[in-house]
Amino acid sequence: MTHSNSIKLVWYDTTIFESEENQKLFKTFEEAFGNCVGFVKESECKRFIGRDGVGVKRIILIISGALGKDLVPEIHQHSNICSIFVYCGNKAFHQKWAAKYEPKVQVLTSANELIQQIRECIDRLNEQ
């Protein structure tokens, strides 16, 4: 669970609420980390990320590979984004474009690995 309300877990994926697997994973995020929000529209996600000074100081972003390829270059330098996790089915393909944004961006294919990396990221942020 996040120990600070200033850390928000944001998941942007057009199928986040359509896929049963994604719905279960989102519920797991809510139970494990508490402070989660999901977006299916890029405009809403970008608006949320761009809102400075409304209590969300640090964002951990989860994004699909296909969406991340276009959005990450636009948003990776936002000061309130601490980490971006590209959650996809083809790590080798998405690692090619994501490599230039390391260490802020990691490409992951396993839900368990994603949960573990989020947990470690939150722990690091809470130590700061």
Primary descriptors:
alpha/beta, 5-stranded parallel β-sheet, 5 strands, 22% strand
Distance between the termini: 16 Å
Please tell me the CATH architecture by its name: 3-Layer(aba) Sandwich
Supply the number of structural domains.
1
How many beta-strand runs?
5
What can you tell me about this protein's structure?
The protein has 128 residues and is α/β, with parallel strands linked by helices. It has one domain (7-127): Rossmann fold, CATH 3.40.50. Helix content is 46%, strand content 22%. The chain has 5 helices and 5 strands. It has helices spanning 20-33, 42-50, 65-75, 91-98, 111-127, and strands spanning 7-12, 36-39, 58-64, 81-87, 105-108. It has a 5-stranded parallel sheet with strand order 2-1-3-4-5. Helix 4 (91-98) links the parallel strand 4 and strand 5. The longest helix is centred in the last third of the chain and has 17 residues, at 111-127. It is globular. The model has no long low-confidence stretch (mean pLDDT 89).
